């Protein structure tokens, strides 16, 4: 009988206490596992150290097996990552930040787990995308996550206008993210490309002490000072009016 693949959320950054963002049950289950799949083994160990502070790990940290799954992992290697679970061992897929398999390379592993009849159990934790939708005041009944927009300036403007048109037509909130050091360029492109009445939300460092969330029209953003979001994880949202 195969083991269970637990989808383990992580914090969205350095937080004062793990209990502020991760339920007791999540920490307890995580502490009981000795096999993990993570985007980066080093940061996964740092996360397990935080868990260990409140819930002693089942094994010494150096004895816990951590396999890496990231953008460089070939598709043919996924089956090997599931081998311990097929042998009856429980395992955890842990995200770098937020929830696994959402804006995260773990989705393919989860799909393969289903194909092999491995039970998949998602655990509760912070998702920057849902937190941003909740706090934006934009349409929470219909929304779409679009990942990263093009880095080329002209292509980015074209894509923003396409998303704004779709948003206006379908009354659908559009979400996207950017590499943190390019946040200012993204906001400038949004303000320049969108109609004056289009609502734009900038949500930064969600769930962290430095969290900031602000929603204004494009016209209002043009007159406002830029948020303190340089090199900080940020979710951008728009709703065409």
TrEMBL record:
GO terms for molecular function: methyltransferase activity. Signal peptide: none annotated. InterPro entries: 4pyrrol_Methylase_sf, 4pyrrole_Mease_sub1, 4pyrrole_Mease_sub2, rRNA_ssu_MeTfrase_I. GO terms for biological process: methylation. Keywords: Methyltransferase, Transferase. It comes from the Bacteria. Gene3D superfamilies: Cobalt-precorrin-4 Transmethylase, Domain 1 (3.40.1010.10), Methyltransferase, Cobalt-precorrin-4 Transmethylase, Domain 2 (3.30.950.10). This is SAM-dependent methyltransferase. It comes from Duganella aceris.
């Amino acid at each position: 009988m195969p083991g269970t693949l637990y989808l383990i959320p992580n914090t969205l950054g350095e937080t004062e206490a793990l209990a502020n963002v991760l339920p007791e049950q999540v920490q307890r289950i995580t502490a009981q596992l000795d096999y993990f799949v993570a985007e980066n083994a080093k940061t996964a160990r740092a996360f397990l150290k935080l868990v260990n502070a409140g819930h002693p790990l089942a094994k010494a940290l150096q004895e816990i097996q951590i396999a890496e799954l990231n953008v460089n992992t070939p598709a043919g290697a996924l089956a090997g990552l599931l081998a311990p679970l097929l042998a009856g061992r429980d395992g955890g897929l842990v995200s770098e930040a937020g929830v696994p398999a959402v804006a995260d390379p773990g989705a393919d592993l989860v799909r393969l787990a289903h194909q092999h009849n491995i039970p998949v159990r998602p655990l509760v934790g912070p998702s920057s995308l849902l937190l941003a939708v909740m706090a934006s005041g934009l349409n929470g009944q219909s929304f779409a996550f679009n990942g990263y927009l093009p880095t080329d300036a002209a292509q980015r403007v074209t894509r923003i206008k396409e998303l704004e048109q779709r948003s206006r037509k379908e009354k659908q909130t559009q979400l996207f993210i950017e590499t943190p050091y390019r946040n200012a360029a993204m906001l400038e492109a949004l303000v320049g490309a969108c109609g004056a009445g289009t609502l734009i939300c900038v949500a930064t460092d969600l769930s962290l002490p430095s969290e900031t969330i602000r929603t204004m029209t494009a016209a209002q953003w043009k007159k406002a000072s830029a948020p303190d979001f340089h090199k900080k994880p940020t979710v951008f949202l728009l709703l065409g009016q």
